[in-house]
Amino acid sequence: MKLVVLCALVAAAAAWPNFGMMADSPGGASDAQKQHDVNSILWKVYEEIRDPHLKELSQTFDPLSGHYDDDGVSARRLMQELNDERLLEQKHWFSLFNTRQRQEALMLYDVLEHSTDWDTFAGNAAFFRVRMNEGEFVYAIYAAVTHSPLTQHVVLPPLYEVTPHLFTNSEVIQEAYKAKMTQTAAKIKSHFTGSKSNPEQRVAYFGEDIGMNTHHVTWHLEFPFWWDDTHEDHHIERKGESFFWVHHQLTVRFDAERLSNYLDPVNELHWDDMIYEGFAPHTMYKYGGYFPSRPDKVHFEDVDGVARVRDMLILESRIRDAIAHGYFTGKDGSVISIRDSHGIDVLGDVIESSTYSPNPEYYGSLHNTAHVMLGRQGDPHGKFALPPGVLEHFETATRDPAFFRLHKYMDNIFREHKDSLPPYTQQELEFDGVNIDNFYVKGNLETYFEDFEYSLVNAVDDTESVDDVEITTYIPRLNHKEFSFIADVTNEKNHDVLATVRIFAWPHEDNNGVPFSFDDGRWNAIELDKFWVMLHPGHNHLDRSSFDSSVTVPDVPSYQFIKDRTEEAIQQGKELHIEEFESSLGLPNRFLIPKGNKDGLEMDLVIAITDGQADAAVEGLHENTSFNHYGCADGIYPDNRPHGYPLDRHVDDSRIFEELHNFKHIQVKVFHHE
């Protein structure tokens, strides 16, 4: 798996004999060679393969002669589809939400996933690269590299440089074509979608941040809704709960960005109400035309071939009914209780819906169908034969502010369930013998915008006879100055104790200056960090940099950076240390806190130190700094507690928290400087 997180024994990470990319790895090829091949197979994916070896493989490799752990069943199935000319043509749009197109992409994923050596993996990649639809191919490669044991140290290049059309305004793409045709180097300025007359423009920097887009699409690659345990080698633990948590965090963070810009928190969508805000994406497919627009104030319409509005209301009613009763009914008639801390996992599987849903025929697929329903409202009956909308791609979905309205709607359903559980008692929340004496922030909470530049070389058509010319675009992105969380903690016991440190923040008041109650505030809490530490007897001084947060990851390096480092390592026989970029699952580390404003966005900041021994699902957590809170796709999730603990259940009386010695609540301000 690609998660650079602690998902198995931490000691195993320390015991790995070689993190270097030059080491031999499963499959018979060095990691550096695998990185080179992945770089080359995705480079100019709409054009001919440029690498001589892979180009030859594309013509000479026979998929039926490869080595597989499924006796070649997957390869024979895909070859049959290819020979029968049933596969989607090249130079056509692709959407994962299109059932047939998804099936085709997953046929190739299966072939790659079942390959047992690198010659077979690379041969299949080269062979199908020139024969399958480019979008299907890219998705299959990204999914396979994410999940295959052959590619555990391969760093995937940023999607926004592989398929720039999905991340870049069409006006910029047109300028890029002009630069290519005139063979003139260009550095083109990008603008966020919309105009100043649209209030949503104030928060476009969030939904259109390519680092955040990368995080969103990466999560859905790591935890795909199509994952089927019967065809894979393991079960993804707490997948439904992680689905809830990652989208809950995006939703509450979006609200914090809105309050930073003097906008009210986002309202939820309703199937029987109008969609008040329209959206013009200003983006285009590489092939297939422009992404459809949606005007203001349109009512939901039935979408031909997808669902009726009435169907969505029925599914919602069935799910809310199950929450009220405290159980779901399995397709075999079994009763599946959700009145415990694991119920959120079942509910997440149902709402998404993934293959883990206990009864998809009855409860449907609320999330996935809703994405298509909302994405098609510009052409619900196919009258104009428009391609899929931005909400039908995980890469582009957050560009549309309606994405957050849709997820606020689902988030409120999740809250219904969470609020049905009994509140934690003071005894459950206490960590006996551990006292937080002091808690504060060292350094100023200040944000600013900086220009980010990325390549558009892969956005334009090309031939080998025409030299590349440097074409880039730059766009403002949010960043913040480094700061640290400081806590002075006393351990009254005469021995070391393992502790879990959990830090959250939420806006102190709404857009009208009315303070949020503690119960509403904790539901809107943004998780800022979670880590384990060994507390020694007596006084302990904790100093945690914002750059070390387990919530965030470094921004993905540029395609050219990965290529250059790989070729340098191969030519010089050196190790290539880019393992810190193996996973882009997490918000960028420059994106930890909301924008704030010039007056200072007042926020409640809380720290909870809980019993690490009871929390920890694996050993050695205090020795590891790479834990990621967004989930664990290939092993045991390290934290036994629910996501958001101890703020995940409703609070009848905030004095329970105020009286805890292992909990501290302060107020801070986040300033933004132009």
From TrEMBL:
Molecular function per GO? oxidoreductase activity
Specify the Tyrosinase copper-binding domain's residue ranges: 400-411
Q: Name one Pfam family in it.
A: Hemocyanin_C
* Gene3D superfamilies named in the record: Di-copper center containing domain from catechol oxidase, Hemocyanin, C-terminal domain, Hemocyanin, N-terminal domain
Question: PROSITE patterns, from UniProt?
Answer: HEMOCYANIN_1 (PS00209), HEMOCYANIN_2 (PS00210), TYROSINASE_2 (PS00498)
Q: Which UniProt keywords apply?
A: Signal
Signal peptide (UniProt feature, chain positions): 1-15
Question: SUPFAM superfamilies of this UniProt entry?
Answer: Di-copper centre-containing domain, E set domains, Hemocyanin, N-terminal domain
Question: What does the similarity note say?
Answer: Belongs to the tyrosinase family. Hemocyanin subfamily.
Q: Matching PANTHER family, A to Z?
A: FAT-BODY PROTEIN 1-RELATED, LARVAL STORAGE PROTEIN/PHENOLOXIDASE
Q: What is this protein called?
A: Tyrosinase copper-binding domain-containing protein
